[in-house]
Recover the amino acids of this structure.
């Protein structure tokens, strides 16, 4: 009976569980994912046993935040609009941001552990920060990245709104290179005002990427549409690539 009860909790939608069952589900997932991680790490470290414990610590930190994210859903709902009002089993855009914020802390812990125990520190720490910062920007701008931006237009082009998942993935990619160059300067190069200035400009532009509501008032296309989002990201990538090439030549 107990096994059936635990199995049912594990296979039930988190939003259909009561607070106690959500905590149990989070613990069960943490245990199962930890066992899987242990087996996976054991396999990939056969040739390099010295990497076993660093990787184990990294994966366990990641699994811990994944489990906590599920267990804390009941607390989330008291402070944030986690679900779509028309369909209370679907995450809203704000709910996606809150969930990703917790998961990004897990990803940050994972890559930070890799940076400390395996290295090179400057490279993996850059990656860790790139995973974390975009979510914090969107979290403090969640009044923009919400369901109100997701509507159906009068024409055939569906407005997807300011999708936090797409903006997060793009933010991670666009921030990694500036952070990488910045820490390369800190650890290996002489102080260079021009390079530092370009890095600051890059970081400012990356932050501006998460202000699509302002750009929508200037640009001749609607960023909330699928086509507009694609063009917006493409233009941003071109600008960031040019700055990154200049940075690479300097440092």
């Amino acid at each position: 009976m107990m096994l059936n009860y635990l199995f049912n909790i594990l296979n039930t939608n988190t939003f259909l569980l009561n607070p106690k069952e959500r905590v149990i589900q989070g613990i069960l997932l943490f245990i199962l994912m930890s066992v899987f991680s242990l087996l996976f790490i054991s396999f990939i470290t056969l040739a390099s046993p010295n990497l076993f414990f660093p990787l184990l610590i990294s994966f366990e930190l990641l699994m811990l935040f994944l489990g906590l994210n599920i267990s804390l859903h009941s607390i989330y709902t008291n402070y944030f609009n986690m679900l779509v009002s028309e369909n209370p089993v679907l995450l809203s855009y704000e709910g996606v941001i809150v969930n990703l914020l917790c998961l990004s802390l897990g990803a940050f812990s994972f890559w930070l552990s890799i940076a400390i125990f395996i290295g090179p520190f400057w490279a993996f720490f850059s990656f860790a920060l790139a995973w974390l910062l975009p979510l914090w920007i969107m979290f403090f701008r969640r009044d923009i990245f919400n369901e109100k931006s997701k509507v159906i237009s009068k024409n055939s082009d569906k407005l997807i709104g300011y999708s936090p998942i797409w903006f997060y993935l793009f933010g991670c990619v666009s921030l990694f290179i500036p952070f990488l160059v910045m820490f390369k300067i800190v650890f290996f190069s002489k102080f260079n005002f021009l390079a530092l200035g370009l890095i600051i400009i890059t970081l400012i532009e990356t932050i501006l990427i998460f202000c699509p509501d302002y750009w929508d008032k200037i640009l001749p296309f609607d960023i909330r549409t699928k086509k507009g989002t694609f063009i917006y990201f493409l233009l941003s990538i071109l600008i960031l690539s040019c700055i990154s090439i200049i940075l690479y030549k300097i440092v």
